[in-house]
Amino acid sequence: MDINNVYVRDAILYYTIQQYFNCNDKKTSQFITQLDHFDYRSGLIHNIPYLSLQLHVSEKDFYHTYLIRVKESFKTLPEDVILVKKGDKIYSKLLAIIPTAPPYLFLKGNVRLLNEKSVSVVGSRNASKESMEKTEILVKALVKRNIVVNAGLAKGIDTITHQTALKNNGRTIAVIGTPINQYYPKENKNLQLAIEKHGLVVSQFPPCNKVNKWNFPTRNATMSGISITTIIMEAGEKSGALRQADHCLKQGRDILIPYSLLQSSLLWPRKYIKKGAHTFKNIKEVLELLNKNDILYKKV
Question: What pLDDT is recorded for position 298?
Answer without folding.
Answer: 59
